[in-house]
């Protein structure tokens, strides 16, 4: 997850070290792919879009187990941040559809940097390469011994030992993203910890893999859908899954996440005066019209409502959009996933079927439990009672007017 816009020297150092790792450190096979291909070379893209804490990490993890897919190890926001396509270059996470002032060729290559193909056999070398690819973004203030780290990992050394020897906290790395730190992470970084880390059923790309479907998801995409269609993938077949979740559960999850030190911090927007939050950094997406003051529970409601409002407004940029309820993903996983697989024309996958039977727990703020929001029902209801017209319109359009369905 990207933090505040770093000073130019931090981003420049991150770029320099990333380019060194990409061109000199990772395996020759990966270097070859990155020199000859870009992310737009995939035949099709399956884009999962949802408000934060809407269940997209779990759905992404399930779908990337399909053996006809390729995917990044997590969200792709860090590559936009590395290229300066983020706040404060923009006033919020919204990227105008006609924004062209960026190095498109570079961004398309960067987005491919850690993509792997799903394969039952997996490939540890691919995971090691991706570890090195991300280190310059997670620790941009350090010129690390990347070649030595790469060799040590290939030889079987553990990452936490290597980071410890370098005086770096392993809690700032994605492999440990389900644990809380004792305090907020430093702000001078391109990427903190992705919502989803790699799994063992991935291997390095080959030329034939570009005939597969690339699965992408980042909650910030809700504010850049027309731009993604018109500027990034103007000629690519894109199937969009709009994942919804009832407002109470999502707002409750956001409220939890704001109060944890687990990599949900995103931007340094100046002094915050948010009742219920004692941190110094904004968390999750930055909607248009955001305010640095108010009640935390109201901020969470705003993030849910405006995210879905932008999806509903931006969906017309795409021909193929499927709306899916996260509640159905939880209660009827197999048939819901089958619907998505058919929509994306992925075909059958034994590995996917096995994962559907026993999905992973992915970036949960607390132990999953139906209707957990009722633990702070009075607080949630207080926000719903104050909600504006945007919220009212969204719950009606999404069909969440029956509270009995809010699990």
From TrEMBL:
Source superkingdom: Archaea
InterPro entries on file: P-loop_NTPase
The protein's name: Sulfotransferase domain-containing protein
